[in-house]
């Protein structure tokens, strides 16, 4: 009988927007549990993703966080920062992601000072495309923080160096029972995951025209063995934004729908019937009920 003890722990993945946090989490978990976009603050929630290792004896629970930023002003920004703070304060290990292509990492270096009493490792990402002199400069700056346990150089997009990060995390998990079902990749509901897939497609299709205050709510999700029926509302804050989502003759929302169906089909492995509706909820970012529906704050 195999009596090897189980290990488990929480890992907060933090960093500035677009540093590659979600890409790293998805690669390690082996499934898209957090959406990816070049748009700032794509991740709005504390996404928990579960990864099993060592023949299922070690469970790593990743907490993918909104990118940190200074001077939160709107209710939405304040809610994002609350999610961020809870994530790293409640975690056993903190991975600080740094974009090697970023022109200025002063905000990250400043934030590192606040973590000196925690178990922290730095991850320099995008080393496959960054200028080598810039990578060395960042590494030199990080060497000044003597409390950092490790400094990794990786490419989250192609996987280079990621295995070393995983080995470090496995070594730093504590003996104890699993926190989540080892057969699950995330604790997020299927309705939430479906909403996030469609929100990702909104980011991809609308690009710079995407209203910052937008979210997707799955209002109906019914499935049988062979088919899933999904109704979703795309919520915008102003009536003028509705046309941006719909596009000329509905061409944009059709593209969004087709792209979302493709990803949802991969996730559920069955025929997908998806209907999208655009709704206007004025100033929804200032109303707690709508922030709850968007999954940004707890009920």
Q: Write down the Rg.
A: 20 Å
- Count of the domains: 2
For the report, how would you describe the main beta sheet?
7 strands, mixed
Count of individual beta strands: 10
Low-confidence regions: 39-44
The CATH C-level class name of the largest domain: Alpha Beta
Helix content: 25-40%
Please, how many helices?
9
The fraction of residues assigned to DSSP E strands is 15-25%
CATH homologous superfamily of the largest domain?
P-loop containing nucleotide triphosphate hydrolases
Task: State the distance separating the first and last CA atoms.
Answer: 44 Å
Structural class: alpha/beta
The CATH topology of the largest domain corresponds to Rossmann fold
CATH hierarchy: architecture of the largest domain? 3-Layer(aba) Sandwich
Mean pLDDT: 84
Following the backbone from N to C, one meets helices and strands in this order, namely: EHEEHEHEHEHEHEEHHEH
Give an overview in words.
With 299 residues, this protein is of the alpha/beta class. It folds into two domains: 7-175, P-loop containing nucleotide triphosphate hydrolases (Rossmann fold), CATH 3.40.50; 190-293, GMP Synthetase, Chain A, domain 3, CATH 3.30.300.20. The chain has helices at residues 21-29, 75-89, 106-112, 132-142, 162-171, 190-206, 240-246, 251-268, 288-293; strands spanning 7-15, 47-53, 58-64, 93-99, 120-125, 150-153, 174-175, 214-223, 227-236, 271-280. The longest helix has 18 residues, at 251-268. The protein starts with 6 loop residues before the first strand and ends in a 6-residue tail after the last helix.
């Amino acid at each position: 009988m195999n009596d090897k003890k189980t290990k488990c722990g929480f890992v907060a993945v933090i960093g500035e927007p677009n540093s590659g946090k979600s890409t790293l989490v998805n690669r390690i978990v082996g499934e898209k549990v957090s959406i990816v976009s070049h748009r700032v603050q794509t991740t709005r929630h504390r996404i928990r993703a579960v990864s099993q290792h060592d023949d299922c004896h070690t469970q790593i629970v990743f907490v993918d966080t909104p990118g940190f930023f200074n001077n939160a002003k709107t209710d939405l920004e304040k809610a994002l920062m609350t999610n961020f703070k809870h994530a790293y304060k409640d975690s056993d290990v903190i991975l600080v992601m740094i974009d090697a292509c970023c022109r200025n990492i002063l905000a990250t270096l400043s934030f590192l000072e606040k973590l000196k009493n925690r178990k922290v490792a730095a991850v320099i990402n995008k080393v496959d495309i960054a200028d080598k002199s810039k990578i060395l400069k960042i590494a030199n700056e990080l060497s000044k923080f003597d409390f950092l346990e490790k400094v990794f150089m990786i490419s989250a997009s192609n996987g280079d160096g990621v295995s070393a990060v995983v080995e470090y995390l496995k070594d730093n998990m504590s003996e104890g029972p699993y926190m989540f079902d080892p057969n699950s990749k995330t604790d997020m509901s299927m309705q939430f995951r479906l909403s996030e897939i469609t929100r990702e497609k909104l980011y991809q299709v609308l690009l710079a025209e995407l209203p910052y205050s937008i979210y997707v709510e799955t209002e109906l999700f019914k499935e049988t063995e062979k088919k899933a029926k999904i109704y979703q509302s795309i919520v915008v804050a102003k009536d003028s934004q509705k046309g941006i989502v719909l596009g000329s003759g509905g061409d944009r929302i059709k593209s969004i729908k087709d792209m979302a169906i493709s990803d949802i089909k991969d996730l559920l492995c069955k025929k997908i019937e998806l209907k999208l509706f655009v709704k206007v909820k004025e100033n929804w970012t200032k109303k707690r009920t709508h922030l709850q529906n968007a999954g940004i704050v707890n009920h």
